[in-house]
Amino acid sequence: MLDALEVFTTVVIGLMVGVEFSVAFVINPILNGLPEESVVLGRARGGRMLGSVMPVWYLTSLVLVAVWAVAGWQHRGTGLVVIAGVLLVISVIMSLLLLVPINNRGRTWTPENRPEDWKEQANRWDRFHYVRVAVIVAAFTLLVAALA
């Protein structure tokens, strides 16, 4: 049973990492190559869609890691799972304090109502997101190592 939980948790978090990685290194670079009006609309649409899904995904990931850490307390690799959990908590805190406020503003923007500093806000969100991606990649890597 623990083996199934470990694999399921790793897959769920691996998929989350993949989505966040693709936003940082595929989706946003594609959007940024489009005309400004399309960038604003695309980022707003992405902010609405992912802004609805990702909080559930992050919290589910945290719960799964916590269950893994408790259920596998006597097994090797638990320390790595706990550290991965701490990293996921850091990513959630970063999200709430740094990324969500920008995303909440950006998800309502249109070419007509965008603020003058929209590019700076989008760039700030991107920089914070790169750091968050690095944190969750590290957490995922620790979970994979804990499987070994």
Automatic annotation (TrEMBL):
Q: Name the domain of life this protein comes from.
A: Bacteria
Name of the protein in question:
DUF1772 domain-containing protein
- Asked if the keyword Cell wall biogenesis/degradation belongs to this entry, the reply reads no
> What keywords are assigned to this protein?
Membrane, Transmembrane, Transmembrane helix
Q: Which InterPro entries does the UniProt record give?
A: Anthrone_oxy (IPR013901)
**Phylogenetic placement of the source organism:** Bacteria, Bacillati, Actinomycetota, Actinomycetes, Kitasatosporales
Give the organism, scientific name. Streptomyces gottesmaniae
Residues that span the membrane, as ranges: 12-34, 55-73, 79-100, 129-147
